[in-house]
Amino acid sequence: MKIATYNVNGINARLPVLLRWLEEAKPDIVCLQELKAPQERFPEKEINTAGYQAIWKGQKSWNGVAILTRNLEITKVQDTLPGDPGDEQSRYLEAIIDQMVICCLYLPNGNPYPGPKFDYKLSWLKRLKKRTDELITMDLPAIIIGDFNIIPEPIDVHKPERWENDALYRIEIRKAYQNLLKKGWLDSIRTLFPEEKIYTFWDYMYRSYDRDAGIRLDHILLSPYLKSALKSGGVDRNVRGWEKTSDHAPTWVCIEK
């Protein structure tokens, strides 16, 4: 089974790119972030025509998450990360697919640091840890997947010394990510490629893609139940080079249940 995450950076603006990639890559499960579309403007018809069904939570102008499946039933569990009833940002979507819990997330960016946006990111991470700890305790086959807006290690960023006070790389944020791994979650891409430079995002500015000056922000974390199921994975970085594409590239793994 092939499971992927892709920050599309505007699903309607990038729809031709998304549909082309779906046709070429044929993932079974896809988690999308940054839809930048209200609920009623999700392109369900086009997605269905491409052979996928979908659930989604849109938001006008910003955020928005979706889960797509090919020949697999989706049962929505919740579309808000528990812990803050006043949080109206569309950043979390949880579903059961093929007896697995899929948690699609678009974690807050947090910049500028310091400030309220960084504080919101820290509080969001605390809520995420509480939910993911529950999944560990239940010993379920579960996957946390999406754009984490976290650069875990120096190897995951071009010129890390320039990022020390950026909310993507602040020590508090990296520690929160490491705490997830210490609890038992497996960083699947880094496990498959322990020493390789792997990026999933290249800024539109400064010819970042041409210079390979990227960062690794998009992660697929497997619960202990699924650790032995991991078979392969990678980043479809060529998609970042397509015309009118997102600044992220699709990231994927294959598991054998």
TrEMBL record:
Its cofactor is Mg(2+). Residues 4-248 form the Endonuclease/exonuclease/phosphatase domain. This is Exodeoxyribonuclease-3. It is an enzyme of class 3 (hydrolase). It comes from the Bacteria. Pfam families: Exo_endo_phos. Belongs to the DNA repair enzymes AP/ExoA family. InterPro entries: AP_endonuc_1 (IPR004808), AP_endonuclease_F1_BS (IPR020847), Endo/exonu/phosph_ase_sf (IPR036691), Endo/exonuclease/phosphatase (IPR005135), ExoIII-like (IPR037493). Its EC number is 3.1.11.2. PANTHER family: EXODEOXYRIBONUCLEASE III. One of its GO terms (molecular function) is double-stranded DNA 3'-5' DNA exonuclease activity. Keywords: Hydrolase, Magnesium, Metal-binding.
